[in-house]
Amino acid sequence: xxxxxxxxxxxxxxxxxxxxxxxxxxxxxxxxxxxxxxxxxxxxxxxxxxxxxxxxxxxxxxxxxxxxxxxxxxxxxxxxxxxxxxxxxxxxxxxxxxxxxxxxxxxxxxxxxxxxxxxxxxxxxxxxxxxxxxxxxxxxxxxxxxxxxxxxxxxxxxxxxxxxxx
Length: 166
Hints:
Helix content is 63%, strand content 6%. It is mainly alpha-helical. The protein has two domains: 30 residues, no CATH class; 95 residues, no CATH class. The longest helix has 32 residues. It is elongated.
């Protein structure tokens, strides 16, 4: 008799478990339906679906032409044009270039033997954009070499890259 009384309770428990399982499956199925899509309004005013993963993937692709433009036509050209020229200012320029390259290589400082272990020209575009903005602000503010050095040094310290040790 005890066995017969437990069977209806077990059956009810199984039905409840089945209902819970069905609810879980419905919730998961609903989340899969909208996964990776976003509704946007087009320029024509129409409502369209856009695949988010495609936009994210395409926005993070490295662009060699942009990288070249940022480094050579932006950062390098501006520094060459606005830093003092001549052999008497070479040491000061080198201090600024060291801080610039440390930032662009994400903390790789030049060693005593002259190697760095990274190339600032091959930096992430986001880092190059940030460096270009700092340099442009410095130029627009008519800043001094000391101000630019301090900005770059403080940026490197804030990122955890430290200071030059020799």
